[in-house]
Design brief:
The complex is a heterodimer of chains A (539) and B (307). With 539 residues, chain A is an alpha/beta fold. Chain A has 19 helices and 20 strands. Chain A has a six-stranded mixed β-sheet with strand order 6-7-8-3-9-10, sandwiched between helices. In chain A, strands 16-17-18-13-19-20 form a six-stranded mixed β-sheet, sandwiched between helices. Chain B has one domain: MetI-like (MetI-like fold). In chain B, helix 4 packs antiparallel against helix 5. The chains are: A alpha/beta (539), B mainly alpha (307). Chains A and B meet through helix 2, helix 3 and helix 6 of A and helix 1, helix 8 and helix 9 of B.
Chain lengths: 539, 307
């Protein structure tokens, strides 16, 4: 394969941000090269500087950011180009799509209006010609009913459709380079697969180069010709994708490649007692309604679900966003009003009021997805994890509570010394450990884990999964593990429930479902998440 | 949208009723009455007056009669200005207060909005600090300081403007009072605008607009400003209700016959009907302007749908 002509060359790029804590070096002098029509991936975990590299190239850094070095697009240094010169390249020759499909379109203008604007800006087209062009683009990205969609506002469309619109905008002026910054991270797996397939198709059709910024090695393997591995602002390894994947040189790349959670969970003994049981659990949300506004709309988030969690068991609940999996978890903990029966240790708790539930709360714990939002920023770690003890074991002295805090922190692999610090001083993975310590300190029997690893990098995910498995073994815990991430679920759960639109689509032993999914929906989910060879981009 | 408006107007009726009821009884709880004056009237005259205005009736009957008259648009006579009905006082006064308040509102929104945008675009640079300084000064210096300064400089020293008087609403007479009224509002609008514009400029869709190579004008005005204007719209509703119902300070200093002074006079004199008239007018303005705000919201933001 001959080396294609270089269209984008990044030379000794440095990006630094002036913050209240001093100057932060986000990118520390890196070199990258993108050839015409080539697919290049920049991989790395959060904070590696992979996004800021391309933000700097597009001159989209936050106002406290500063870039030095050079970013040459066909001989023009984008970093020093005049504003008008820059705007002839941006949106025309180099375009970009982003991680946040929900917020990347202007909510106040129609899709048509937003598509037409860059077309008219970069090509001297009349209104009706630009409109035709926009319609053509919507067809190109396979938006159904494009005529009608031209008049839609972003809020009327799903995340996947919005990302398609973003792609249409990015391709509007037949660019040389498309920069895709984690374009599928915020989307459900089946939608991810559709968007990736679409990008691959469009590249084949239009021949632009694609720069993929991602943390997802599966995507890199499927799509990229060449890959740059970034860590802490530096490129630690680069090369052809196949070479890097088959024989990684740098220790960090090796670590990333082995970061997929492994191992399987053995099912509990067949005569383990059922701890938490839901019968015909149903949660209905009422939307709208009121004085002169008619009856409210009813949304059945959880639709008559039966579930029985045994001692020592982990039930994985998978499904895409809106499938009702989190709602089910909360309903089983009686954190949401629901219909149907809920039994805990053979006691009906479906009618228990707050006072009756309170002593049970310590046994039924919940860990959330967001390790940043779920810890109070104004309390020390010690205060956060011992707060539950004040309610459930009020007889403990301050000293005893402190001892328990130390134990809990040690158990989750943190130095007890950290208990006087505040959450913002910790990384995402450490915060999730704190959140787990907060649940564990009460010695619960059942823990509902609501996407506990979704906000974390892969290598950190693996550590959290291992921690959760160890805690389960040590304390004979039962988990309800809610996740959209099938790789993590496979490593965690011995029993699997697949949910869609509030209903159970399929359930059974985890390995049985993974090896032989019966329902079409499950098969789609598995294919989209697991099969790394299904799509292959430029050969 | 039509049914939404209808519903809002219908819910305004019980709201008004509650406000009128609370105000009616509250003012009667206050000690004294409309005819307790410093130079005390003779008991006979006082009794006659009270009988004439029905103040001897049981309170529930007075309340009932007031409500009945109110439904017919009759606010009753003013007790302390017996030559006028309350309705006459307000219709005359509002002819002055509404144009005055409206002008001040427009000036505050236009100037304050512009200053806020300039500050946001120059965040943490000298332009920003200048606007913040003006805004802080504007909201801390009270009107009773600003007004005499304007009179002194523009009226006496440079003789550009009349010192006071309404002059039938002549432009030249309005400049001083409008500026005085607008200045503190302008300061608030500028600060609000700056904040929401900075936030808007940081949003993801602005990043998209820049990445698409759109012009600065389009990025700032078409995409950032439209979203940023919503907090200003919410603020403008109550602000309009306050501005359009007059200001005793500005009316007193510039000798303007608006409605602002009635609020204070009526309360001090226990002029029950005038107090009630004031309450009804302010409540009505507040309700109407909040409704306008909600309509404006739907106009600016297509996601806001009322049905």
């Amino acid at each position: 394969m001959s080396t294609p002509e270089t269209v984008l060359a990044v030379n000794d790029l440095r990006v630094r941000f002036r913050t209240l804590d001093g100057v932060v070096d986000a990118v520390k002098g890196i070199n990258l090269r993108v050839g015409a029509g080539e697919t290049v991936a920049i991989v790395g975990e959060s904070g590696s500087g992979k996004s800021q590299t391309m933000m700097a190239a597009m001159r989209l850094l936050a106002s406290n950011g500063e870039a030095t070095g050079s970013v040459d697009y066909r001989g023009r240094n984008l970093l020093t180009l005049s504003k008008s010169g820059l705007n002839e390249v941006r949106g025309r020759k180099i375009t970009m799509i982003f991680q946040e499909p929900m917020t990347s379109l202007d909510p106040l203008y129609t899709i048509g209006n937003q598509l037409i604007e860059p077309i008219q800006r970069h090509r001297k087209l009349g209104a009706s010609a630009a409109r035709e062009e926009a319609l053509k683009l919507l067809r190109l990205v396979k938006i159904p009913d494009p005529e009608r969609r031209m008049k839609s506002y972003p809020y009327e469309m799903s995340g996947g459709q919005r990302q398609r619109v973003m792609i249409a905008m990015a391709l509007a002026n037949d660019p040389d380079i498309l920069i895709a910054d984690e374009p599928t991270t915020a989307l459900d797996v089946t939608i991810q697969a559709q968007i990736l397939t679409l990008l691959a198709e469009l590249q084949r059709k239009l021949g632009m180069a694609i720069v993929f910024i991602t943390h997802d090695l599966g995507i890199v393997r499927r799509f990229a010709d060449r890959v740059y591995v970034m860590r802490q602002g530096e490129v630690v390894e680069e090369g052809a994708t196949e070479a890097v994947f088959s024989a990684p040189n740098h220790a960090y790349t090796k670590m990333l490649l082995s970061a997929e959670p492994t191992g399987r969970k053995a099912p509990p003994s067949p005569n383990a007692p059922v701890l938490l049981e839901g019968r015909n659990v149903e949660v209905v949300f009422k939307i709208g309604g009121g004085f002169l506004a008619g009856d409210p709309m009813q949304l059945r988030a959880v639709d008559r679900i039966n579930i029985a969690l045994k001692k020592g068991q982990t039930i994985g609940i998978v499904g895409e966003s809106g499938s009702g999996k989190s709602t089910l978890g909360r309903a089983l903990l009686r954190l949401l009003p629901s219909e149907g029966g809920v039994r805990f240790e053979n006691r009906d708790i479906s009618k228990a009021d707050r006072g009756e539930m309170r002593p049970l709360r310590r046994e039924l714990q919940l860990v959330f997805q967001d390790p940043f939002g779920s810890l109070s920023p104004r309390m020390t770690v010690g205060q956060i994890i011992t707060e539950g003890l004040l309610v459930h074991e009020p007889s403990l002295s301050r000293k005893q509570r402190d001892e328990r805090a130390c134990q809990a922190l040690e158990e989750v692999g943190l130095d007890p010394f950290v208990r006087n610090r505040y959450p913002h001083e910790f990384s995402g993975g450490q915060r999730q450990r704190i959140a787990i310590a907060r649940a564990m300190i009460l010695k619960p029997k059942v823990v509902v884990l609501d996407e506990p690893t979704s906000a974390l990098d892969r290598s950190v995910q693996k550590q959290i999964v291992e921690l959760l498995r160890k805690l389960q073994k040590d304390h004979d815990l039962s988990y309800l593990f809610i996740s959209h991430d099938l790789a993590v679920v496979r490593a965690m759960a011995d029993y699997l429930i697949v949910m869609k639109q509030g209903k159970i689509v399929e359930e059974g032993m985890t390995d049985a479902i993974f090896d032989n999914p019966r329902e079409e929906y499950t098969q789609t989910l598995m294919a989209a998440a697991m099969d790394p060879t299904k799509f292959r981009l430029s050969a | 949208m039509f049914f939404y408006l209808l519903r809002r107007l219908l819910t305004a009726i019980p709201t008004m009723f509650v406000i009128v009821t609370i105000a009616f009884f509250l003012i009667r709880v206050a000690p004294g009455g409309p005819f307790n004056q410093e130079r005390g009237l003779s008991p006979e005259i006082k009794a006659n007056l009270e009988a004439q205005f029905g103040l001897n009736d049981p309170l529930w009957l007075q309340y009932w009669n007031y409500l009945k008259n109110l439904l017919h648009g009759d606010f009753g006579p003013s007790y302390n200005l017996p030559d006028f009905t309350v309705a006459e006082l307000f219709s005359e006064g509002l002819k002055v207060s509404i144009p005055l308040g409206l002008s001040a509102l427009i000036v505050a929104l236009l100037l304050g909005g512009t200053l806020g945008i300039i500050a946001a675009l120059n965040q943490n640079k000298s332009g920003d600090y200048a606007v913040i300084a003006v805004a802080t000064a504007g909201s801390t210096i009270p009107t009773f300081v600003i007004a005499p300064i304007i009179q002194l400089l523009f009226g006496l020293t440079w003789k550009l403007l009349p010192v006071g008087g309404w002059g039938g609403g002549a432009f030249i007479n309005m400049v001083g009072p409008v500026l005085t009224l607008a200045l503190p509002q302008m300061a608030i609008v500028a600060r609000l605008m700056r904040g929401s514009m900075i936030e808007s400029l940081r949003s993801h869709h602005i990043r998209t607009a820049r990445a698409m190579g759109l012009s600065d004008w389009s990025v700032v005005v078409k995409h950032a400003l439209r979203g940023a204007v919503l907090p200003i719209v919410s603020y403008a509703g109550p602000a309009a209700a306050a501005l359009l119902t007059g200001s005793i300070v500005v009316e007193t200093i510039f000798a303007i016959p608006g409605v602002g002074r009635y609020f204070v006079q009526a309360a001090l004199n226990r002029d029950y009907t005038l107090v009630m008239g004031t309450v009804v007018v302010i409540a009505l303005f507040t309700i109407v302007f909040n409704l306008i705000v909600d309509i404006m919201y739907a106009v600016v933001d297509p996601r806001v749908r009322y049905d």
